[in-house]
Write a structure and sequence with these properties.
Elements: H1 8-18, H2 22-33, H3 42-52, H4 57-77, H5 81-96, H6 100-117, H7 120-133, E1 137-152, E2 159-174, E3 177-185, H8 187-214
Antiparallel strand pairs: 1-2, 2-3
Helix pairs in contact: 1-4, 2-3, 2-6, 3-4, 4-7, 5-6
């Protein structure tokens, strides 16, 4: 059987699901199943869940985050919903430190949670995310640091001039963990990077519009929030 090591945040979010009534989870599943076309981003799932939860946005985010992340796990590990649900129950008993009453409460909502997890829109969003970010190295963040470096006199008793330089600090993930890379840059490099970023955004919009309006295939830009 697959094993899932439950972290603190996941336990908190499973607790949110535990406190919902089975009929509420059924209603969420029905609401999501009725969405047409199926959403491609997690944020597009939220309005339907929030509506069922009477505008409880925080709980809606917990439900969407857990269901999407579990579908990503299922996709990457090649396991089925039944096995994931059993692994979650075992993880709760092992990691959650819930009381017997709380575990029994989870068991009472588990069938409804399994139905919710089986909603096809979660699989669809997880597949879109996997295709968008399935690369050997995954960008996390970057910073450009600006340094002032003094030029000292021969005797080092005064500053005669200064040079301003830049350092690009890139953080990224790979299969073997987190990595960081620092690259020295000058002003022309920064301008070139800015031009390339703007060009990349423009090309992405052109490609999306071609697929969406010419080929009539729904297309999302990876990581772009839905604005409409």
């Amino acid at each position: 059987m697959a094993q899932i090591q439950l972290g603190a945040q996941q336990i908190r979010e499973l607790q949110v699901i535990r406190e919902l009534k089975p009929e509420t989870l059924h209603s969420i599943a029905s609401q999501l199943s009725a969405l047409d076309p199926k959403p491609m981003r997690p944020a597009e799932l939220l309005p339907a869940v929030i509506e069922v939860l009477a505008q409880d946005e925080s709980s809606a985010e917990s439900i969407v985050r857990q269901c999407v992340s579990l579908h990503v796990l299922m996709r990457n590990a090649g396991i089925a919903i039944d096995e994931v649900v059993r692994a979650i129950r075992a993880g709760i008993e092992r990691d959650a430190k819930w009381t017997l009453t709380e575990i029994e409460k989870w068991n009472s909502v588990e069938p409804a949670f399994k139905e919710l997890l089986g909603t096809d829109c979660f699989r669809f969003v997880a597949k879109a995310l996997d295709l968008a970010y399935s690369y050997a190295n995954l960008y996390r963040k970057c910073r450009i640091l600006t340094d002032i470096r003094p030029l000292f006199s021969e005797s080092a008793d005064k500053v005669e001039a200064a040079v301003v330089s830049y350092t690009l600090r890139l953080q990224y993930d790979s299969v073997d963990g987190d990595h960081a890379l620092s690259v020295a840059m000058d002003a022309s490099d920064v301008h070139q990077l800015l031009e390339q970023c703007n060009r990349a955004l423009k090309k992405a919009e052109t490609a999306r519009d071609l697929m969406q309006y010419k080929a009539e295939i729904r297309t999302a830009l990876a990581g772009e929030p839905k604005n409409d």
